[in-house]
Model the fold of this input.
Amino acid sequence: MAPLKQIQKQVSLANMDRGIKTRSQQILMKKDVLPKRKADESPLKRITVKRSAMGEINGKENDRAELVGKATGKQAIVTSREIRTRSLSRTRKPLSSVNLVKPPIPPAAKAQVKDVQIAETSKPKIAVKAVKTESTTTAAVKAAVVVKTTATLGILPRPTKTQVKIIKKQPDLPKVPAKPRKSDSDKSESSLYVSALEELNLDDVVKDKSGKSTVKKKQRRPPPPGIEDFDKENINEPNSVAVYAMDIFDYLKSRESHFKIKDYMCRQPDLNASMRALVVNWMVEVQENFELNHETLYLGVKLVDLYLSKVRITKNKLQLIACASLFVAAKYDERFPPVIDDMLYVCDGLYTSEDLTGMEVELLKAVDFQLGIPLSYRFLRRYARCNKVQLRTLTLARYILETSLLDYSTITYSDSKLASAALHLALIMEGHKEWTSTLEYYSGYKAQEFKDIMKLLNDVLHKKQTKEQAIKTKYSHKVFFEVAKIPLVKSSDL
Done:
């Protein structure tokens, strides 16, 4: 794919409206048109014998060279499994066939061993008598036995008479009953866990009347009366983490102030709002063609704005920053992120792998490696689920929220308020004008707090997008209920 369209005369940013096709997609469509890659044309690929990580570690280089040489002809290529089997059959022998012969002991070593044995037998033994009197304690007797044993073996120096008297004169110590220890086989995971918590003296560990230690469960904060308890209905669903859901989103709302973006176009003389909208439209196309998560797209756009708010750049680096932001976001959120070759391919070879990896480092340093950014898309899904909004209405809210990514004027607003405004606007467009008490409780906002944002989003929908049509085309499909074709409402009706 070509780079960005031509925005000014100095920089060529053209042909972005054709859509993006990955290399694998184009190979399936036109196998004979695209040239072969260098790896496919390499002659070494046919004769190279791949080795596994653990195989043929002690093999000989001559044997491997011979096998590779045989593979260059018309014979079949020898696999690594066959190489490993042949090398093991030649080098290893069964243990029963190996004769373990002790090496002979030199005469000088034999003489030294005899001298040591004679010295040990001739060493006088020290007899320490433990007189059993009323002042003699168990600890003193044990200490005397230890001293006698160690002195006999030659580990410690011989004790003097005064040391023996000191041991005998030790006061009586109170006997502590030995606590019976369970064997490792008797210990279960729960007993080990509770015993570890007892040593840490955590407040969450309590003891019942029988003395058994238990861990207190996290107390879930219930909603006020009259509001449907959505988390209680999903308390047994592990993926919902209903016990911590309210705390999680309260924490995300508190983190929004750490990632607040201010107006930065005044500090970027080479950029403008239309260029930013164009590059965001390109990121939407990449996300759609690579089938990435929506969270990846939102995080990528957020990283672009955070970087541009801190670093001044030129026009020719704008697409590189967008590519690196989307690549980092995919690594953070995707299970199987795209490889670096795919990211370079969608840039039409405009950048090298060194350029992309270098920009990744600069981007992560600029955001201080903070990637847990609160995203409006996550808030939208939470609010819609708590109010049990229909999928069509949720998709319409997603279309409104995704369209707002193109507009530069929305970057200064809170993500949680943007999600609330998009959902409320979608409800109004579907004929539900009420912002319910359930939505008010779970979002934490009243309708009047984001009314100006809702009007701004409605104005963004009314704008005629001449170049950036990726989002409207995407949500005009039947998969997305064709929500982009739903009639808009007037700002006076809001």
Remarks:
- The chain has a mean pLDDT of 74.
- The domain at 376-485 is CATH 1.10.472.10 (Cyclin A; domain 1).
- The first helix runs from residue 23 to 29.
- The longest strand covers residues 205-207.
